[in-house]
Design brief:
170 residues; 8 strands; globular; alpha/beta; six-stranded parallel β-sheet; two-stranded antiparallel sheet; binds flavin mononucleotide
């Protein structure tokens, strides 16, 4: 099993300057649940996004308009992984473009993809279905988990993640 996610620390909607991004907090709960049974590959952009929320929004909008594929650092070998948890925030109504970089780069045929995300009100914004459509030869589980970024550090969030994983059969 593999846990891949993108998350940006810094100034964000409804949270102060975080040291660990909201999606990364959720990824941490998933890692805690599976322990050694899951490997982690964090998508670290080659060009890091600014800490300032407004500045980051400008870049995100531009990347979306240009249908950009911002590069991430390193490589991951998917051959050992049949199940991939994929986490991201919602940026401007969809996953950040770096998620498309990841989805375009590898062959997901026959893999099970389980998406999860954080947001500030958009929910999953139809992203699970969009990933399913994009990866037509993968098994994309659309029963993903969407959590408000402002809720991830509350007591109940970890329980919500664990309950979701149990519901999925893990
Ligand atoms: C550039 C940018 C665009 C965003 N656009 C949206 C949006 O369209 N809808 C939404 O609900 N939240 C939006 N947000 C809020 C984030 O989805 C939310 O704060 C999320 O938890 C951030 O996760 P992270 O800390 O893991 O990066 C946006 C945040 C940023 C930085």
């Amino acid at each position: 099993m593999l846990l891949t996610f993108f998350s940006r620390a810094g100034e964000n909607y409804g949270v102060d300057d975080t040291e660990v991004g909201n999606t990364e907090v959720i990824a941490g709960y998933i890692k805690d649940y599976f322990g050694d049974k899951i490997d982690v590959f964090k998508l670290e952009p080659v060009n890091p996004y600014p800490d300032a929320y407004q500045e980051c929004t400008e870049i995100a909008k531009r990347e979306k308009t240009e249908n950009a594929r911002p590069a991430f650092q390193g490589e991951v070998d998917l051959s050992a992984h049949d199940t991939i948890f994929l986490g991201y925030p919602i940026w401007c109504g969809e996953p950040p473009m770096i998620i498309n970089t990841f989805l375009d780069k590898y062959d997901f045929a026959g893999k099970t993809i389980i998406p999860f995300n954080t947001h500030a009100g958009s929910g999953a914004a139809g992203s699970y279905e969009a990933i399913k459509e994009k990866l037509s030869d993968a098994n994309v589980n659309t029963n993903g988990l969407a959590i408000m970024g402002t809720d991830v550090r509350t007591q109940s969030a970890k329980g919500t993640v664990e309950a979701w994983l149990k519901e999925l059969g893990f």
